[in-house]
Design goal:
Length: 689
């Protein structure tokens, strides 16, 4: 209460009659003084006569600050803002007709054009029959309060977040412009409506739960929820306020969808759409918590051939097609993932080992069905490693077990399968140790070449030698290549070792020129080396550096190399022949023989594997070796036998027309420092220098 109002109250109290009874005249004066002190104007209206009376403050609030002008009802309405006048007139008419009170906030326009906000409270006085005898009104200037409220409204209208305010009965008391736009409805349609009646779809949703929790607990709620009718995601902040609730909300649909896309991309393979390695490990971990899944790790055989010969675009098409085929053959409980490159993983939940092997057979069968792409038919096979849970409680261990089984399957050949056991794990660890040791061996110079001479069967003279890689292991002694060549491939050391062998071989050729001619020195070349673009350049550079002559250097290939990439292999061999390099097929008959492959390649030597030589004492063995010799001669190549250990084998080979031979009967492999025999004595069981 202001000082002026308090003084008016004290003065009125002084004029009260004894006994505490209030004088009506004094009471009216008290009210008048209190209203004046509060700067509140009053007016009265008689509906029967149309008389309108007011005090000076009312005149001042409606028209001008002089407070002297007498106003009638039309003057009062004329002072109102044109947009607000109809609403005020309807409110007064309703009060006269129905006897109800009202409260309104509206604008008046002063003669100088100034706009002020007035708060008006109106109450009728009723006769006994219910007719309105008089209407009393009180006016108050609330411009500052309304300006502040409007600034708040303007601020709320300027923000991009939607804004809603509810009272304790869940009626909407305010809504900003952004909310209007998102609701697609005007404020006039929404204000005063009960939220659950206006949008019954909200009932039972996260929106209702969080709204009610904020009101009941008094704690703000921040959440993101999906509103199904609009198919939109909203991020909301709900704050309890005056028994009701204030809500700020933002449409975050695009952000949520973008985050979902990023999450999908992070967990799925871009090419095939399958779960990727990370997602595979997470799903496997979840399955291990509840059961005992079996893992099948599939690796495509020689898929690099498809990429190198047909291009990566075709290779990608094949991978997509394979993924679709595999997915279509899986049981409902199985999950297919792309583990990386040309590897796929199948997680068979609840399967037995027997069922997993049956599934493996079906998947390998579907992979073997040829693809027709761009006029080409592409055939694919795969090896599979099967790993049951067997108590493994983490995904990493189970996948490593499957990888160990896969390695065992690959050792069996193309399109094979193997099941993990503890022995495989031990061998896998040994393999890792071997790979690491091989890397260190290269650095320490522990690798070396030994040379096994090759002799002509007609005259016994040395025609050449085969360079055999050896590892002088610090603990295990001298190891033949068969003990570590797989580890070299697994460690990615094939190319590096091959380059070193080429250098050593060239140095040996040059060193032998000062004594007795060595003949052709043969080195083994891995399939990966031959199809690479670097081998021809490396041989050409070595030929120039060491001034190699035609026929001094030869390369030995397996049959698998010939069919790996026929077009590339043929082109590479032609280039090497052009450099004076001889070509031999090693261990003929033990690999993937293809007469068409032999027919299209110019070969200098076909080597007969020791397995056939050991059977020369039997009619079938003799027949097979004789056929290989005849085939070699028919192709314009010479025949060379390996693993000759008995004089009878030597004599039989010579009788069959074999051209050259090597074996322990003739000479054992030895380092360069040892003297190499120049010929063998055909009349004895041993070599003669």
């Amino acid at each position: 209460m202001s000082d002026e109002a308090r003084r008016a109250e004290r003065g009125a109290a002084a004029r009260r009659p004894p006994g505490g009874e209030r004088d009506p005249v004094a009471l009216d004066e008290q009210r008048r003084l209190a209203l004046a002190a509060a700067r509140m104007g009053t007016w009265q209206y008689d509906p029967a006569s149309g008389a309108f009376s007011h005090d000076g403050i009312c005149a001042e609030l409606l028209v001008a600050p002089d407070g002297q002008r007498d106003l009638d009802l039309d003057d009062a309405f004329a002072a109102l803002h044109p947009d607000d006048e109809p609403g005020v007139r309807r409110a007064l008419e309703r009060t006269v007709a129905e006897g109800v009170d009202y409260e309104l906030t509206y604008r008046v326009v002063r003669p100088d054009g100034q706009v002020r906000w007035l708060l008006e409270r109106v109450q009728p006085t009723l006769l006994a029959d219910g007719e309105v005898a008089r209407v009393d009104g009180v006016l108050m200037d609330v411009t500052e309060r309304e300006d502040h409220a409007r600034r708040v409204v303007d601020t709320l209208d300027s923000v991009t977040d939607g804004y809603l305010a509810f009272d304790a009965e869940w009626r909407i008391t305010h809504i900003n412009r952004s909310a209007e736009e998102q609701f697609g409805r005007s404020r006039e349609e929404l204000l005063g409506e009960v939220a659950w009646e206006l949008y019954p779809e909200l009932v039972g949703t996260d929106f209702e739960r969080h709204y009610r929790e904020a009101v009941e607990t008094g704690r703000p709620q921040v959440f993101t929820a999906y509103y199904e009718p609009w198919r939109r995601w909203y991020e909301e902040r709900a704050f309890p306020h005056d028994g009701g609730l204030v809500v700020f909300f933002l449409d975050v649909t695009e952000r949520v969808e973008r985050e979902a896309e990023l999450a999908y991309a992070a967990s799925h393979d871009e090419l095939t759409g399958l779960p990727n390695r990370r997602e595979c490990e997470q799903r496997l971990t979840a399955m291990l918590d509840d059961g005992e899944p079996v893992v099948l790790l599939l690796d495509l055989d020689d898929f690099k051939l498809v990429n190198d010969s047909l291009g990566h675009a075709v290779g990608d098409e094949v991978l997509v097609g394979l993924a679709e085929r595999l997915h279509g053959r899986l049981p409902d409980a199985a999950v297919l993932c792309r583990f990386g490159g040309d590897e796929f993983i199948v997680i068979a939940d609840g399967a037995t080992v027997s069922e997993a092997l049956e599934l493996s057979a079906r998947l390998r069968a579907v992979l073997r069905e040829p693809f027709s792409l761009g006029g080409r038919t592409v055939g694919v096979s795969a090896c599979v490693g099967v790993a049951p849970s067997d108590g493994a409680r983490d995904a990493g261990t189970l996948i490593r077990n499957a990888d160990a089984a896969l390695f065992a399957a690959k050792r069996l050949g193309r399109g094979q399968a193997a099941v993990y056991d503890a022995g495989l794990h031990e061998r896998a660890l040994e393999r890792l140790d071997l790979e690491q040791g091989l890397r260190e061996a290269l650095e320490r110079g522990e690798l070396e070449l030994h040379y096994q001479p090759i002799f002509g069967l007609v005259d016994g003279r040395r025609r050449g030698a085969e360079a055999l890689l050896r590892w002088r292991h610090p603990q295990r002694g001298l190891l033949a290549a068969g003990h570590f060549i797989d580890a070299a491939e697994g460690a990615g050391l094939t190319a590096r070792i091959g380059a070193q062998v080429l250098e050593w071989a060239c140095e040996t050729i040059v060193a032998s020129r000062s004594s007795a001619p060595l003949g052709t020195l043969w080195i083994n070349v891995a399939p990966e080396e031959l199809v690479s673009s670097e081998i021809v350049g490396a041989v050409a550079a070595a030929r120039r550096r060491y001034r190699l002559r035609s026929g001094e250097l030869g390369i030995e290939l397996t049959e698998r190399t010939l069919i790996r990439d026929p077009v590339t292999v043929r082109a590479q061999l032609e280039r090497l022949h052009g450099l004076g390099v001889c070509v031999a097929i090693d261990d003929f008959g033990t690999g993937y023989s293809s007469m068409s492959a032999l027919q299209h390649h110019r070969l200098d030597v076909i080597k007969i594997d020791r397995a056939f030589v050991s059977q020369l004492g039997e009619p079938k063995g003799r027949a097979i070796v004789g056929a290989v010799i005849e085939l070699a001669h028919a192709l314009g190549a010479s025949a060379s036998a390996e693993g000759v250990e008995e004089i009878e084998q030597w004599e039989t080979l010579r009788a069959l027309g074999c051209d050259t031979a090597a074996g322990y009967l003739l000479a054992r492999p030895a380092p360069l420092e040892a003297e190499m025999p120049a010929r063998v004595d055909l009349a004895s069981t041993g070599p003669r220098r």
